[in-house]
């Protein structure tokens, strides 16, 4: 497939998990990709992907680093067509045991990072978006926990719910301002990332037993939805939320 040929994507949290799988899917579909993560340099496997992939260190909660990252993208590729805000963190903890420091850090990464990426990438996305039927595309990775609550998920639930509604605000603003940028959110259920595979057996058992399809998603099943939203196949979709949860929120 080459439906993303000629496009440049930025994927935050792109060295592992869902982010890494999105990077690989975009490259397979013909895009060039700027991978952003917290490591000082990319790993050897990413470097081996070739000159269509590049790396920039980015703390998504730091506004100055966003300014530098956007400058790096423009210098390396000259354009930006797709932004995938995927970077996120979460530590399960009861509200009475939660710390303000962890609350603020979770909100900063999961929600501030989406805001900052949208703000600082908008001009570059709007410029490139004029080249495509569906315009440029922002895909924000939320969660089923942006739709329904789970105990021990205070700051994570709050941040992912914020991503869901911020996505809709951005979609409406860009449409009203006649900017060719679509903005949508993806809400994965439980995904079999390397991190999830290291969870305690009882937690993994809950993830599979509570999902109607009886298993966790593979990262590729999330990346395929992200690639769809990034492409002109989703040219009339903005402000939408796509739930990829094996039926969890249908209960």
TrEMBL record:
Domain of life: Bacteria
GO molecular function per UniProt: glucose 1-dehydrogenase [NAD(P)+] activity
Tagged with keyword Oxidoreductase: yes
Enzyme class: oxidoreductase
EC number annotated for this UniProt entry: 1.1.1.47
Keywords for this protein: Oxidoreductase
Pfam families: adh_short_C2 (PF13561)
InterPro entries: NAD(P)-bd_dom_sf (IPR036291), Sc_DH/Rdtase_CS (IPR020904), SDR_fam (IPR002347)
Family label: Belongs to the short-chain dehydrogenases/reductases (SDR) family.
Protein name: Glucose 1-dehydrogenase
Species of origin: Sphingomonas populi
């Amino acid at each position: 497939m080459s439906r993303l040929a000629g496009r440049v994507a930025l994927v935050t949290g792109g060295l592992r998990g869902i982010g890494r799988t999105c990077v690989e899917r975009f490259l397979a579909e013909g895009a060039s990709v700027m991978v952003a993560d917290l490591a000082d340099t990319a790993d050897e496997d990413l470097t081996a992907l070739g000159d269509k992939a590049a790396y920039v260190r980015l703390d998504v909660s730091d506004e100055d680093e966003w300014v530098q990252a956007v400058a790096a993208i423009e210098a390396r590729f000259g354009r930006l067509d797709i932004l995938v805000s995927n970077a996120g963190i979460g530590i399960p903890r009861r509200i009475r045991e939660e710390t303000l420091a962890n609350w603020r850090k979770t909100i900063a990464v999961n929600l501030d990072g989406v805001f900052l990426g949208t703000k600082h990438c908008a001009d570059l996305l709007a410029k490139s978006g004029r080249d495509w039927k569906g315009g440029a595309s922002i895909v924000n990775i939320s969660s089923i926990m942006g739709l329904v609550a789970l105990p021990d998920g205070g700051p994570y639930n709050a941040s992912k719910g914020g991503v869901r509604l911020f996505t809709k605000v951005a979609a409406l603003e860009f449409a009203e301002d006649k900017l060719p940028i679509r903005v949508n959110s993806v809400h994965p259920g439980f995904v079999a990332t390397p991190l999830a595979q290291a969870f305690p057996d009882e937690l993994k058992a809950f993830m599979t037993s509570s999902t109607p399809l009886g298993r966790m998603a593979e990262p590729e099943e999330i990346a395929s939805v992200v690639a769809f939203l990034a492409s002109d196949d989703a040219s009339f979709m903005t402000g939408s939320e796509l739930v990829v949860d094996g039926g969890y929120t249908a209960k």
